[in-house]
Give the backbone structure.
Amino acid sequence: MHGTEFRLLGPVGIWQGELGLGPTAAQQRSVLAMLLLEPGRVVSVDRLVMAVWGEDPPGSARNAVQVQISKLRRILAALPDTELSTSAQGYCLTIDQERVDLHRFRELVREARTVGDGPAGELLHAALQLWRGPALADVAGGWLPETVGVGLEEERRAVVEECAAIDLRSGRHQEATAVLSPLVAEHPLRERSVGLLMEALSRSGRRADALALFRSTRQRYVDELGIEPGDDLQRRHQQVLEAQSAGAGRAGAGSAVADPAAVAGPEAVPPAAAAAPTPAAPTPAAPTPAASTPAAWEDASPAPSPEPSPAPPAESPPPPSESPPAAGVAVPQQLPADVVHFTGRERELAGLDTLLRPAPGTGAGRVPTGAMISVIAGSGGLGKTTLAVHWAHRVRDRFPDGQLYVNLRGFGPTGSAMTPSEAVRGFLDAFQVPAHRIPATVEAQTALYRSLLAGRRVLILLDNARDADQVRPLLPGAPGCLVLLTSRNELTGLVVAEQAQPLPLDLLDRAEARELFARRLGSERVAAEPEAVEDVITVCAGLPLALAIVAARAATHPGFSLEALARELHDARGSLDAFDGGDATTDVRAVFSWSYHTLGADAARLFRLLGVHPGPDISAAAAGGLVGLSVPQARRLLLQLTRAHLLTERSPGQYALHDLLRAYATELAEAYDSEPDRRAALHRTLDHYLHTAVAAGRVFTPQRTPLTLPAAQPGVCTESFADYGEALTWFTVEHPVLVAAQQQAAESGFETHAWQLAWSLAEFLDQLGHWHDQGVVHAVALDAAQRTDNLAGQAHAHHGLGLADLRMACYDRARDHLMRALDLHGKTGNPAGQALIHVALNLAGERQGRHEEGLYHAQRTLELYREVGQRSGEAYALNNVGWAYAMVGEYQQTLIHCEKALRMLQQAHDGRGASAAWDSLGYAHHRLGDHEQAIVCYRNAVELRRERGERVRAAETMYRLGSAQLAAGDVPGARDTWQQALTMFDALGHPDAGRVREELGRLG
């Protein structure tokens, strides 16, 4: 192992032996912690922002994260085999997991669970020694400790209990007492810890202390929770009493030793004590924070006894009555069997555990007046029932008066939902109410049902509910009971009227899906074909049911390679045929159909046509175009699909469906919608994006001559934009959709849409630094334009490709594309287009040091714009000429041209152009020795560019601002400015990053 260690289990940081290498700032420690929790995986900037500031970050949060990343890079740069990389999705820290104490801890625990007690105890003790205090002890803010840290501490407590259980089985009673005592002191209501400590005390000859511990724990349960301790703790109490009685009898008969175990060790323990039941298995280890939606299918370590593991400690409101069930009333225990190997879903389980705690703000004087209700909602195949049943088993001992269960058949193969009256009658039968006592009317039966529940603590699991009206008659009328609902609908009415607690269930992330496969197939088989596993996970889209079906196929055919199964899934080409588990409940297509068949005709049509939409997201305006309806109508249909969990509203106004639901929608569209109807829907969709993109471009870059488009298809809504900020927001949100739409247009025979969409995206992609996308979409555009012999489209495509190559320092290739574009614009008689090419060639000349050539192209741009009478273009060209003069050392000419350009641009309220003119003036003043004036000009440019989100140009100006500050003698100011510029350049993958890094290095 390397000499450098990364620590999360205590103070966060990097250590070389006992020498701390940093980081010293709490925000840096938060960022480092997030990267270490998932080494080798990309962590998005949004998640890093959440880790540092929680739910309410400042406006500058993203920039601040970039600053902290840059500082971390300086620390990590000197470490071997350590790489902090940047991508469009975020940041990734690549290191060996063995160097991170948390992952070493988990690996030791996993290994311990595969060996016998002797080596297992040593491994667990070694794992616990890695803890140096509370996890994530010194990070910024409370989000990481409160969300991730809580789970890590639960892992530690579970391992302490597991270690103590091994000590007890090995006769090390004193050691078990030593490790359990502080845990029980910290968590006095943690039943398993208390039970183990009672056993340890009893076996150490301290039975009186064990009984005193039980009495104090029981009193605390009654006082704080209003319930008796669970069955396991009661059983241990009885065992201690029996052992004490046996010991007293021996002492009365003249025995010299009251407790042989206290003297002779484990071999002398009498049979009754030796036969004491083994404590329940530890709670499975909590996942990393990326596991926001863990798999609800398997468990890492099943309990060795059929008794359920006790629930996590929770503070529940006192029940209205602690009396035992009335004579003649049965105690129903209707819960379905729990899955043998449940794992994950830790966040959801923790959310359910909060149902047992008093609501915030309730005190001793405020007794709950109604039952607690929770709704687990999500699409088919997510494991809602599995989660609900598992949690119900965990907490069933909190409900001594019984557990009721019913499948309401809201969604299923029969299509026949259970009526409330059927459910109520079933519950009355569960309470063994004699038939002659059951009233004739449904209303009276419901009243009797609620009377039976009054004053009792019963858990009621209402599975697979259709809607709120089906559920309301089944809700208790008094406090003390808890109702757990599962449904594919959101049941918003219950959330609003009955104050039900919603618990939305989502797809699994890749780590959770990988763990599911490892549990089902064995870690060795999964590790042997990691690429095949990743392929399968991708095709399954994180849907637990789909993953389970594929895992079952692999398990029943151990001779099949996972690569062959992955190839089989790919060969299905988007079909759901590969996801048939053998019956209706394990057939993904059938499971989806139960939700689809509950939709109205319009909502069903929209869902089908979503298979035509390119994805990944869709707005209400785009959905309106897809189906040819108004935006308000489309919004109502989207809401219906969201409530049915056939869509997810990922962000306000943006809806998405996962890949398997998209495949199902595509199948339905091909089955029920004719090819002309599907093509018309795609045409309307492409028209919406093209016309809206051109409208946004008019505001985003008003100096650009817009394309002339044919009228949009009937039923298309073109969005409008009041200002630059609205246009930028739309481009940013719709960027991935526009790229996908352009690709689909080219593949579907809409070649004109393909090159025009690329043209409409060009300025946004260039200004925001999305140069890879710039190259991709314009390569698609060029191919489409060439297929239709459209010279104008080819010219624009060559221009876009030239800009992309220019930004990525591929100057020769850029020049080839630009010269080709210049020739094509000449053939089509487009002088404004030629002017734009000369602008790019001017920039190419500057980048390659061919400044006289650059000046020629700048002057030619000015001539062309004056020829066509385009004032905005003339203003930009004046600035470009001024800049080109600066490149050849004629700074006075720069001031003359750029000051004139600035006046014209300010009069036109063109912030983008004005920022460029300020930047040019700053450069000229700097070169003329007027550093203070240069700093003023540069700051004006930076402010305008930041306001507009122009990351590339803002970074370039900040580099020049730092040079002016250094020349003016402000070394600290220069260092800070260059550091900010470097952070931005690194995030963009800009070729100037190396130059800035060298400048900072020279500053020391």
